[in-house]
Specification:
By secondary structure, this protein is mostly helical. The protein is built from 33 helices and no strands.
Amino acid sequence: MMTMTMITRAIRASSSSSSGMWIHALPPLFFSSLSDNNNNNAFHSKSQRFDTLDETLSCFNGMLRMNPPPSIVDFAKLLTSISKTKHYSTVLSLSLQMDSLGIPPNIYTLTILMNSFCHLNRVDFGFSVLAKILKLGHQPNTATFTTLIRGLCVEGKIDDALHLFDKMVRKGFQPNVITYGTLMDGLCKVGNTSAAIRLLRSMEQGNCQPNVVVYTSIIDSLCKDKQLIEALNLFSEMLTKGISPNIVTYNSIIQALCSLCEWKHVRTLLNEMVNSKIMPDVVTFTAMVDALCKEGMIAKAHDVVDTMIGRGVEPDVVIYSALMDGHCLRSEMDEAVKVFDVMVCRGCMPNLFSYNILINGYCKIRRMDKAMLLLEEMCKKGLIPNTVTYSTLIHGLCLVGRLSDAITLFNEMVDSGQIPDLVTYGILLDYLCKNCHLAEAMAMLKAIEGSKVDPNIQIYTIVIDGMCKAGELEAARDIFSNLSSKGLHPNTWTYNIMIHGLCKRGLLDEANKLFMEMDENDCSPNDCTYNIITRGFLQNKETLRGVQLLKEMLARGFSVDVSTTTLLVEMLSDDGLDQSVKQILHNFFK
């Protein structure tokens, strides 16, 4: 039997917020019918509705004081009402009170309790409820298993969910459309859309037919996987079967079409929607506005917003932010601010994301005075700057040569409780190295290594680059050689930096060794690699090897860059260059 302690522990460990997933329908409740003159009648009314959680709790406390107490099914009705408002921790707390007062649970109250545990990401306690259901002699039903499957899916335990599904079928329970839909949604969420489609085909072979929710779940996943053709095929199949798409189905496909700039098909689908009496909503318009802004078609994006308002759909902060971002991408900061002002005038309050967009826009055009004023403004309005805010400002300050101010802001960021990420660290490291503050850069690298953030190859590559450019080749070598001990592998950029540093020192054998090991380490050289090492050999009078590399580079489909071309022209124009070397170069150009 699940103890009261277990429930108490779960209440303390869980938050009252929902997981964001849809809730499957709980089994219908059968409420006791008492005579009209019974004092308990108010609690049994099927039309009873509660406007606030406080009203519901007041009703619950009133029920506890009744003698005799109402039927358990009336408690189940109340718990269902609370569960539908997503106050799952409250359901646990009330269940604990009922248990302490000796009010025996039934299959419905236990299923509601199980559902609440699963929504609070405690499917382990959900299985404890199942054990209690069996111990009390109740029979679990399809809804019981569906609840647990959903809980497992939310926690990403998809293999366990599939195992439970198979076990459920083996024991003779028939999965319904909600069970299938829950499992397919879980498969799609972990990126296993192909398995979801196989389950769909298996479902169709049985007595349970898919509905619009099932199809939409898979269509949405296919669209997110950029498998638009497959999504459209499934959409057509759905229509052929007489299943009408809903707004979510249309939005999934429209968003995918917008991301591919298939505007003609977007218009066709919008017309189909309207003809089917399904009106575009804020999600539909957001997809179009965002895609148009990203493509630089800001005027058309404004037209869409005007159409949206004309249809009675009020733009939200996401749409206004997309418009602002569109203007910022074009460095039209005055226009971006106008959109911001219109948003506020229409009663739509800007959020952190809105401010971050404007701050980023000002930083890109190096108007740090405006960007810093926005930081002050958002703080006055009670918005807390996040890591993105600080990283953007730090980068902007570095861009305009205010490195000391950037470091000061970094320290303020840490003092405020914001944790720097690798982007933040990378920005500061890059500019410390560029400004020859290598000691400070190494101190920061040590600090990163000692923090909870694991430095990646990009972080080490920035430092290696700084060391090489400052002529500290030995220090760069040490960092490079220790990468494998940190579980990291050099990328093409890392190799290019080291090869360039070695070539500058005339260490061609070592540079060539690194070059040769790139393919062995599944890190193929690119055009930059070939140009760097070719120039290294030519500049160090190793003309034959340099020309050999030139031929190899062209054979691989790479091009000679400006620096290498300039070097070749200079060599051919050099009267002091040995004629045999010139002849080799002339032969290359024939």
